[in-house]
User: Which sequence fits this backbone?
């Protein structure tokens, strides 16, 4: 069975500062992928970043980077230079090698960016 | 990037009626589509996996006779909520993927808000 845990129900950050959203996971699959999605109040799910379990380097996409610590089974999302438009719900998700495409989602973290 | 559309975006219906929600991949062929429901401030719950040309696979606890899923083509999947009741009111989201490998990004539709009166 796979499990994703996001322990921060809500986070606050000042505009232009960096913020880290935590995500830990558990799986017995040797191969897996980790994803982060952003869900603004409109409801759409926006793909942010992907990290494969065998990737040697941490994934980066613009202001988003994924701090992947395989031994600790953590895949934290770092957002640099926060913007007001970053205020949203953020979900960490995992796809295991035997999941047949089924994503397992964490509980989500509501990020609020203050001006 | 890949675009997935859903129609309608909002639907209000009377209890007992059926509602059909469409999910389309606009610029790619999706071998697999997924249907989720989401209650306010909660995570997404997978309802079923839909593969083109075959029967959908439902998650435990999801009534397949109530939530009918059809995946008629590589770009279209439909979810029909039959005899909808107020407890079916929720946000329904579909996603589409070109495959089921671990690196396959799922692209989500904008969602459909269903309110059953």
Assistant:
């Amino acid at each position: 069975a796979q499990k994703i845990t996001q322990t921060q129900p809500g986070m606050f950050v000042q505009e232009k500062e960096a913020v880290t959203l935590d995500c830990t996971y558990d799986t017995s699959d040797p191969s897996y992928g980790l994803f982060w999605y952003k869900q603004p109040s409109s409801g759409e799910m926006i793909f942010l970043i992907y990290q494969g379990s065998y990737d040697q380097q941490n994934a980066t996409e613009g202001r988003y980077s994924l701090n992947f610590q395989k031994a600790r089974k953590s895949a934290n999302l770092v957002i640099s230079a926060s913007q007001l438009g970053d205020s949203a719900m953020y979900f960490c998700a995992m796809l295991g090698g035997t999941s047949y495409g089924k994503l397992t989602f964490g509980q989500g973290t509501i990020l609020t960016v203050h001006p | 990037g890949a675009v997935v559309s859903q129609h309608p975006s909002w639907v209000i219906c009377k209890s007992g009626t059926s509602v059909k929600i469409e999910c389309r991949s606009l610029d790619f062929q999706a071998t697999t589509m997924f249907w989720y429901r989401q209650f306010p401030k909660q995570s997404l719950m997978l309802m079923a996996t839909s593969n083109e040309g075959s029967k959908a696979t439902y998650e435990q606890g999801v009534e397949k006779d109530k939530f009918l899923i059809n995946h008629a083509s590589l770009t279209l999947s439909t979810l029909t909520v039959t005899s909808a009741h107020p407890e079916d009111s929720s946000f329904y989201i579909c996603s589409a993927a070109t495959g089921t490998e671990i690196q396959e990004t799922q692209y989500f539709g904008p969602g459909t808000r269903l309110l059953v009166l």
Remarks:
- The interface with chain B takes residues 31-33, 35, 37, 42-47, 50, 52-53, 89, 91, 95-97, 99-103, 105-108, 110 of chain A (CB under 8 Å).
- Chain A has no helices and twelve strands.
- The first strand of chain A starts at residue 3 and ends at 5.
- The CA atoms of residues 87 and 112 of chain A lie 5 Å apart.
